[in-house]
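Homework help board

Subject: predicted structure for assignment chain

Our instructor gave us this sequence and asked us to write out the predicted structure in token form, then describe one feature. I got the tokens but I'm not sure how to describe them. Can anyone check?
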Amino acid sequence: MTGLPFVFAAWVTTSEIDKNFVNEFNKVLDNGVKHVDEAIKESQITHPKNFDPGDYLSNKISYNFDDKKREALQLFLKYISEL
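My token output:
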């Protein structure tokens, strides 16, 4: 509808966050994204047939909150504020 990407989820806050926390949080998130296959192997979750969690987590989700996603989220917030 807008030509912008869909933002399904985001980590947000209304208060100031210590920059050290943000940096450490981003490192942990990056580590998790880089080690998806290991996490799947260690999990005890039974996946449905014809579902590849590695493909889903590695190829179907975009983890970087870039300018286009920021724009999309701002537009969404604008739309819901007008309801």
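Reply (TA_rk): Your tokens look well-formed. For the description, you could write something like this. The radius of gyration is 16 Å. That's the kind of observation they're looking for.
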